[in-house]
């Protein structure tokens, strides 16, 4: 009568072992075969089943190593090239969404009033959402003034500034052209950041400088300082945009962002006072970053606190 041979405990439920049946008179040679092929197959395969190499491998030559280094270098460059373009696309799309949502809220306000508070909330939420969406990809600058200020304070490489700014401006223009197609040129003009009422150009410059200074000061604190709670960066920056829009929205339009002003200006072909909304935010952001740098401890001191 057939029976199952004895096996180690961990083999009792093995499908190979459960299907193995031998006669009572199993020979010692067969037992060795069972042990070597089923119970301890790794040793058996290492000893008997690895085909011998007909020719030993030649030692690696200098040329082979040199070609491998060149290949890896080119692969690394291609990877960095694709990664950098990924960042530019993120900035373009992020700025597009920001301008589309923010300026779109101003156009909707003309049809059914959502009030200054509603528009400020839209701007703040749009900034917050973009920070959490693309912050890990490109840093979520979505503002040429922020990019330039970070480069001036040596927290962002200058060689990437032109591409970042170009992507942001193109995103703002595309969003403005989309709104132009949806709402028309005449309705697009009120979304431009123009001095409201009898506000003089000097007052407009001061307002835009101050609110962008505040914005960049907060950005520097939550995004460039290791002591900050980075998980709340989006909330902090979004809230800053919200209250800046509340206090300056009816005075200057609260641009704080050259791309947000250049896009609608090009789409509507209306460039009145546009230079104010390019120059003032840039200098305000540089000042905000510089002031925070003065109070930010170097990394070597952070470790001792």
Notes on the protein architecture:
This protein is mainly alpha-helical. It has one domain (67-298): Glycerol uptake facilitator protein (Up-down Bundle), CATH 1.20.1080. It is 68% helix and 0% strand. It has helices at residues 15-18, 28-39, 41-48, 62-111, 115-138, 144-152, 161-183, 185-188, 201-223, 233-248, 258-268, 276-295, 299-302. The longest helix is centred in the first third of the chain and has 50 residues, at 62-111. The protein is globular and about 50 Å long. The relative contact order is 0.11.
Chain-wise SSE layout:
Layout: H1 15-18, H2 28-39, H3 41-48, H4 62-111, H5 115-138, H6 144-152, H7 161-183, H8 185-188, H9 201-223, H10 233-248, H11 258-268, H12 276-295, H13 299-302
Helix pairs in contact: 2-3, 4-5, 4-7, 4-11, 5-10, 6-7, 6-9, 6-12, 7-11, 9-10, 9-12, 11-12
Q: Top keywords for this entry?
A:
305 residues; mainly alpha; Glycerol uptake facilitator protein; 13 helices; 68% helix
